[in-house]
């Protein structure tokens, strides 16, 4: 079952009903533990599967994968064979057409875990060049690349291009910070097709004690719960999201054994933080990054204690503390806009769009997040300092009136609705239907009482009067909750 989430009353909530019951057989069947080392066990198996399927070194294809041993094997084999590989999670196959249109890749390789094989479908003609023009860039042609889809919370998902070397470099840094000398048990609760959890795979792959580590996948909340109840002599690391923690909180309080409970996204609510700590005895550790930059900041780096990080979080209520920058990461704050700008050692090459590489210029990446940077006081010269994240930077809404063009800040419209309208708890200004024109302002709203007599038309009239703009310039959509990703990122589409 795929769980869906939303924001109501400013808090992340589970939309899909959760059945927490599961018998022991179901739990056992839904936990997969990969032992023996990714280099020694998974990689050779992936190479063999590709050999059987006729996939050659430096091939170019879309790889459809899931969180399982066979998918990990095929991912690592694509790296070893220097392939050009676009990752698509099995739960996002609806995006295949979009991916193929943008990249020009005609071959799709689907991992079949239950059958221990890969299924290859290709409609490329014999006389067609094996690589599209974007893949001829020297940085890609020499060693291949891996492409990752962004979340798609703002417009269509972008296709981010990274070298395999950048994956290895980031994995090595993660391993050195999280489990430098001792084997780890890493549990992934987000897709390894995403930038967040693919790093978990490469952290294990780059470890000197890889053969003694474990990579774990669960496919139910009950399975994850029972898995984390078990003690381990390894460092227990969880790659989760606010959604992971939210569904865990629907289960009975119990001590969970997690040394490093990483949480993706940059806005872990204090209420959820306290609930997880009080119910399960673990303190979530904020992790901040992006598909374009990889890891930027995290709690717990440089041997900082839980107490130190919790104290830092409490120093600023209006901003989210996301930890210290990883070694080698450069962070700066734009003086004019307060935007966080980032450059990382494992920065992506750019985007693929319309079969062309839109390469970045090697400078700082604009995150579209406001924030602040505090100079390093961690005792380590390897970090540029601690980072707090504020609000999202969004373009103003442009409204064509009978006499002029009005610009309204999205946050102003949202605050107007949630603070001045007694029946609205949440509001989100979303992308216009046609960004190139001054179409109606679109806003999603959540009513305090779902049975309220308020209609989209009545709310639009109220907004029109408050803003002094024609009522046909306001388009209101009533929703039960604001749609968001498992990481808590609001969806602006």
UniProtKB/TrEMBL annotation:
Entry GO MF terms: CoA-ligase activity
InterPro entries xref list: AMP-dep_synth/lig_dom, ANL_N_sf
UniProt superkingdom: Eukaryota
Keyword Disulfide bond attributed: no
Residues in AMP-dependent synthetase/ligase domain copies: 52-342
UniProt keyword terms in alphabetical order: Ligase
Family under the similarity heading: Belongs to the ATP-dependent AMP-binding enzyme family.
Stated name of the protein: AMP-dependent synthetase/ligase domain-containing protein
Species the sequence originates in: Lagenidium giganteum
């Amino acid at each position: 079952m795929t769980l869906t989430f939303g924001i109501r009353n400013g808090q992340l909530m589970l939309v899909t009903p959760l059945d927490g019951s599961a018998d022991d057989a179901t739990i056992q069947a839904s936990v997969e533990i990969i032992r023996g080392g990714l280099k020694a066990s998974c990689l050779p198996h992936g190479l063999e599967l590709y050999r059987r399927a006729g996939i050659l070194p430096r091939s170019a294809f879309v790889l459809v994968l899931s969180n399982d041993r066979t998918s990990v094997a095929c991912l690592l084999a694509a790296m070893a064979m220097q392939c050009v590989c676009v990752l698509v999670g099995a739960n996002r196959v609806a995006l295949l057409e979009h991916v193929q249109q943008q990249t020009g890749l005609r071959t799709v390789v689907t991992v079949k875990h239950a059958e221990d094989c890969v299924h290859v479908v290709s409609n490329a003609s014999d006389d067609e060049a094996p690589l599209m023009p974007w893949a001829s860039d020297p940085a890609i042609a020499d060693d291949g690349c891996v492409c990752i889809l962004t979340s798609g919370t703002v417009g269509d998902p972008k296709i981010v291009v990274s070298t395999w070397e950048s994956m290895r470099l980031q994995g090595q840094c993660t391993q050195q910070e999280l489990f430098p000398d001792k084997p780890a048990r890493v549990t992934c609760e987000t897709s390894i097709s995403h930038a967040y959890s693919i790093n978990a795979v490469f952290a294990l792959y780059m470890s000197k004690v890889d053969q003694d580590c474990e990579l774990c996948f669960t496919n139910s909340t009950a399975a994850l719960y029972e898995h984390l109840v078990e003690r381990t002599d390894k460092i227990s690391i969880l790659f989760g999201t606010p959604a992971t923690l939210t569904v865990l909180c629907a289960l009975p309080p119990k001590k969970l054994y997690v040394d490093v409970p990483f949480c993706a996204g940059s806005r872990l609510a204090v209420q959820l933080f306290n609930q997880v700590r009080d119910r399960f005895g673990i303190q979530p550790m904020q992790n901040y990054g992006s598909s374009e930059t990889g890891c930027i900041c995290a709690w717990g780096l440089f041997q900082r204690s839980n107490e130190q990080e919790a104290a830092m979080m409490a120093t600023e209520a209006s901003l989210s503390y996301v930890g210290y920058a990883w070694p080698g990461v450069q962070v700066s704050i734009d003086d004019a806009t307060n935007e966080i700008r980032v450059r990382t050692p494992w920065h992506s090459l750019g985007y693929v769009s319309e079969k062309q590489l839109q390469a970045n210029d090697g400078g700082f990446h604009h995150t579209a997040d406001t924030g602040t940077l505090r100079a390093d006081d961690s005792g380590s010269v390897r970090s540029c300092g601690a980072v707090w994240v504020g609000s999202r930077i969004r373009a103003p809404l442009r409204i064509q009136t009978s006499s002029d063009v009005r610009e309204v800040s999205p946050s102003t419209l949202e605050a107007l609705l949630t603070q001045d309208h007694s029946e609205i708890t949440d509001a989100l200004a979303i992308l216009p239907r046609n960004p190139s024109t001054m179409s109606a302002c679109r806003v999603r709203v959540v009513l305090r009482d779902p049975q309220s007599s308020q209609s989209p038309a009545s709310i639009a009239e109220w907004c029109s009067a408050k803003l002094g703009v024609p009522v046909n310039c306001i388009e209101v959509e009533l929703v039960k909750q604001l749609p968001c990703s498992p990481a808590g990122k609001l969806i602006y589409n």
